Request: fold
Amino acid sequence: MFKKSLAIAATLIGMNAVAEEVTITGTVASKCVVVTDTVGIYGNPTPSELSTATADGGVEPIVRFDVLQASFYKARITYPISFSESPALTDVVNWTGNVSVAEVTDASMSAYDTSKIEFDNVTEVDLTVAGSTWFKVESTADYGATKAFPAGTYRAVVSADCIAL
Amino acid sequence: MLACSSYCYSEEVFDVTQNAAAAGLNWTMQNVLPKQAGLTVSNVIYRYTTVKQTEDDMIVYVQNQNAQDTGFVFRETDDWSGIPGNTINKVVPVGNIPGELWGDGSIEVKGFGEVTNPAVFYSFQFDPCFDPQSNPSCPGYKDPFDMMLEAIDVYDPLDDQYVQDELNRKASLKDEDEELRQQRRAMAEGKKENRLEAVLSIVNTALLTAEAQAQAAELIAMNFIPKSYYQAIPDNKYEEKVVLDGGNIPDNRNGRRVGLAQQLLHDQMVDSQYNKENK
Reply:
């Protein structure tokens, strides 16, 4: 019995001596890149309105999605529904906006405008073609019932995300 | 930096052309690409906007003809059929196609729709020292004068086989002529010697008898040899010995008198015809 115990102990010692841990390291680089192409500017066509439309003296922000691999990602773009910076506002601001394809590197990307999904202030587009797509964002803010915006600086944020499918 | 130290002056130049489609949907490449030896085009970058109805079929070709063959050296197709019009911004790598192959370019539309705001650019590269003679600082540059000397192929006609054959033929003819001439000369000298011997022998023997003298004279008469054959003509130089005294040669008064008399006689002859009419 003693001998058996020794034998088991020796076997256990031997097994511990040969154990080894091997590390595997991998890095995943995103195959989807989001780049700000043009920074937006609000125009002030009337005292109660801020607009990025060119006709209103504004500049529409443009964001570019570079996709190296087709059909692996979707673009999620949200137009603003609040100011990130503004003077104190005492009335309601009505927000409207739109996201559309501005430029493409492949003609078939133009179909994103018809295949996009819109809900609330969010636009989602499945990026089914490899290449770059420029999305422009329209944003309009109407203050109260034709009430003048207080003087000051107004900032709003457009959010653009590349989400893996 | 180390690699640059010895080859900076021959580094490749990378550049992009002006908008080839600035003047319209057709353009001539001669006015677009610089005329540089060894130039290659690496990318075509184009941008245009399509104006169309979503449901319409529309295909746009951005293309360049092959300048040295039929067909196209570059042709990119954008199919806008069934999708909304938009602006396309495309970079197409073409893999360093030599500049001389790039023929006239165009944007061609098939179907329904319109292309607006076209812009086409070509990114190119070239080695400024592709032709080492383009710049004295290029590696492999040779002095043009030395090159000219190398380029001149000195032709020695004497190396030509036909000329050599002809010269040999003439030389052999000359040798033959010389031999013939020598033979003739030898024969002539032999005859002369024979004549002289004959004459001398005749003279010697003719002195013996009157009859012999007559015979000798007859023989000499038959074999007349000019003196110039025996006597050398002196080759002295005859200097001018007349010296003009004072250097002035006066008019001959007698001659003047004669000339005057002739003039008078001439006048009389001319006047005589009028005198005859007056009479």
